[in-house]
Request: fold
Amino acid sequence: MKVVEWRGKPVWILRRTPEMLASLKKNDEKVADPNSDKFFQIETPAYAKNETRSRKEHEEVLVVVGICSHLGCSPSSRFATGAQPNLPDDWNGGFLCPCHGSTFDLAARVFKNKPAPANMDVPPYMFLADNRILIGKDEKGEA
Reply:
């Protein structure tokens, strides 16, 4: 995972493994908004309204603003699977907000019955090359 800054906020760029992507389907019933129909501060781009919350041509790459939708804390990565302190026994990997315990899967979708009311935001972005991303602008313009 790489962390960059956009508009003074951390943006996480995570290249997910095939196993990480496969785990997302296991969470569909457990997350509050599996297709990102609602948003926190930035309207979710149409290309991210899916299970992976990413562009189809690069579904392994997650680009999200690393801010919890509850009170604005920055969650920490918890990529290891299985039982761990403050996480469920069937944890598939994701993010844990240290402030009030909201949990997010590897697509930054919030789990049900947590303080966070929405998934983490996906900013507008586009690929300039396979290994180069422009954040804040996509085919519809700049944010």
Notes: The mean pLDDT is 94. The radius of gyration is 14 Å. Residues 2-142 form a domain with the Rieske Iron-sulfur Protein fold (CATH 2.102.10.10). The chain has one domain: 2-142.
